[in-house]
Amino acid sequence: MEQRGNDHPIRIIVAKVGLDGHDRGVRVVARALLDAGMEVIYLGLRQTPEMVAEAALQEDADAVGISILSAAHMTIFPRVVDELRSRELGHVLVTGGGIIPPEDVEALEQLGVGRLFEPGTPTEEFVEYLRTEIRRRRAEFAKTEKPRS
């Protein structure tokens, strides 16, 4: 898979996975990411982990952002991570936000989920996190990428 360099805009898939129907927050996040110069693909409500991972593959995404308020985070985030890995997209950052207890945040981080944000987090905070983490991941990927013959 060809990975964009640090000079290309960050491309992020943003979605509501599962039956959670509250999308005001995720729309605010998507707008903030667009305003920060990122390419945002908002999949909308009631997505499945498979749909999100397939969109990440098709769109050559750097990151996936999941907004969740339904208390299904311990099911949904691990499934998204697994679906990405099954498509050889383990380098794609999985992040998001919602109502997630601190002990669950730690468990999800151990499974490979990136930083998770609580409601009310300033938009500048998650924009800076994405810029820093994607830059780091792109550099790491470039070091491990095999030359083409």
How many structural domains in the coordinates?
Answer: 1
Query: Any idea what the CATH architecture is?
Result: 3-Layer(aba) Sandwich
- Per CATH, the superfamily is Cobalamin-binding domain
Largest sheet: 5 strands, parallel
Overall spatial form: globular
| Spatial arrangement of strands, main beta sheet | 2-1-3-4-5
Helix content: 40-55%
* Estimated radius of gyration: 14 Å
Strand-pairing-aware structural class: alpha/beta
- β-strand amount: 15-25%
N to C succession of SSEs: EHEHEHEHEH
Contiguous low-pLDDT stretches (5 residues minimum) are: none
Quote the CATH topology. Answer: Rossmann fold
Distance between the termini: 14 Å
Top-tier CATH class:
Alpha Beta
Average of the residue pLDDT scores = 92
In DSSP terms (H or I, runs of 4 or more residues), the helix count works out at 5
The total strand number stands at 5
Q: Brief description of this entry?
A:
The protein has 149 residues and is α/β, with parallel strands linked by helices.
Which descriptors apply to this entry?
149 residues; alpha/beta; Rossmann fold; 5 strands; 46% helix; globular
Give the topology.
Blueprint: E1 11-17, H1 24-35, E2 39-47, H2 49-59, E3 63-68, H3 73-86, E4 93-98, H4 102-110, E5 116-117, H5 123-144
Parallel strand pairs: 1-2, 1-3, 3-4, 4-5
Write up what this structure looks like:
It is a single chain. With 149 residues, the protein is α/β, with parallel strands linked by helices. It has a single domain (11-143), classed as Rossmann fold. Helix content is 46%, strand content 20%. The protein has five helices and five strands; from the N terminus they run E-H-E-H-E-H-E-H-E-H. The chain has helices at 24-35, 49-59, 73-86, 102-110, 123-144, and strands spanning 11-17, 39-47, 63-68, 93-98, 116-117. A five-stranded parallel β-sheet has the order 2-1-3-4-5, sandwiched between helices. Helix 2 (49-59) crosses helix 3 (73-86). The longest helix has 22 residues, at 123-144. It is globular. It starts with 10 loop residues before the first strand and ends in a 5-residue tail after the last helix.
